[in-house]
Design brief:
338 residues, ABC transporter involved in vitamin B12 uptake, BtuC, globular, 78% helix, mainly alpha, single chain, 14 helices
């Protein structure tokens, strides 16, 4: 009889333990940053759709998805820098570089579109390389060198254009910003999906991705374990500027011109999307999927404010408040871990 009671008690304990593990896993699932953001996204879409049914109309979805893709490309790039514990304030100005220089090569010099795009991407790589070298070799903080670059790049584009946009971009080039694949999917969305797939693979399945997380988690520990820290930091800045350059060319195609004022304030929006998506300013945590959801949330907020005829002057205020919320959430999350 005692043996039977012990056996029954053991079964009860096992059931309770299994239930506890199940409850814990469910709780952990709903505590994930991505899940929380998805719930917020669904909630915002529902509310905006009720207030203005045009918000969920096909035309607006196409426009919104294009805007989100452009933002997500820039946020993915700057996300690599944030993952290593750095920051890049130059992305807005590099957007202008991408648009203006592609216009210079293709319109002014009459180069083939593929060559103009390639040369513009090379410029993006060189700028990122300069940022990375200043940070790793001269030990300058990323905040300072990219702040300088933000002003220099913007000023250089004003000099190149004399303050006037470069117009008459060829129609095949404009397809990257205005076109649709299969008549329904905006081309920037396709470009972003390709970038998302590549960056997800790098961070998830390659030693380069593991090194980037290690550098952001503890730079000295990563160095002592044999990680080439300088190379990973330089790579992160190159990815950031290349993504910003791609955004610049997409926007130039969308507007049919390379404008020296393009990308103003873009750095604030991309940083907000990245931090909101689960990245930490301290580095070492987050994912490109989280960044994608963060960009979707920001895109819905921006588009919703437009659809609701909210004064444009309030848009940056809202984005700034969202960034404050994301930073505060990140701070509390890090405090809980410690």
């Amino acid at each position: 009889m005692n043996i039977k009671n012990m056996f029954n008690k053991l079964k009860v304990n096992m059931a309770q333990a299994s239930s506890a593990r199940g409850n814990k896993s469910i709780t952990a699932f709903f505590k994930q940053n991505e899940v929380i953001l998805l719930v917020i996204v669904v909630f915002l879409i529902t509310i905006a759709g009720i207030i203005n049914p045009r918000f969920v109309g096909l035309d607006n979805i196409k426009t919104m998805s294009r805007d989100i893709a452009i933002l997500a490309i820039g946020a993915t790039g700057i996300g690599f820098v944030i993952l290593t514990g750095g920051i890049d304030l130059s992305v807005g100005s590099i957007v202008a570089v991408g648009g203006v220089m592609s216009g210079v090569f293709i319109v002014r010099y009459g180069l083939p579109i593929w060559l103009g795009i390639s040369l513009t991407l090379v410029i993006g790589v060189l700028i990122g390389l300069i940022h990375g070298l200043f940070v790793t070799k001269l030990k300058m903080h990323g905040f300072l060198i990219t702040l300088v670059s933000m002003g220099v790049a913007r000023g250089a584009m004003l000099v190149v254009t004399m303050g006037f946009p470069i117009t008459d971009m060829p129609r095949p080039f404009n397809y990257f910003g205005q076109g649709f694949l299969f008549g329904e999917i905006p081309v920037p969305v396709v470009i972003y999906i390709i970038i998302l797939a590549i960056t997800y693979f790098i961070l998830r399945y390659t030693y380069i991705g593991r090194h980037i997380y290690a550098v952001g988690g503890n730079m000295e520990a990563a160095r002592l374990s044999g990680v080439n820290v300088d190379k990973r930091v330089i790579l992160s800045y190159v990815i950031s500027t290349v993504c910003a350059t791609i955004v610049g060319m997409i926007q130039a195609g969308r507007m049919t011109m390379g404008h020296p004022g393009a990308g103003e304030g873009f750095e604030l929006t991309t940083i907000t999307a990245a931090i909101l998506g689960g990245l930490s300013f301290s580095g070492g945590s987050g994912s490109v999927l989280g960044i994608a959801i963060g960009a979707v949330l920001i895109g819905i907020l921006q588009n919703g404010m437009i659809m609701l005829n909210i004064n444009p002057y309030y848009h940056k205020v809202v984005i700034g408040l969202v960034l404050l919320f994301a930073i505060s959430f990140d701070y509390m999350r890090r405090r809980q871990k410690t």
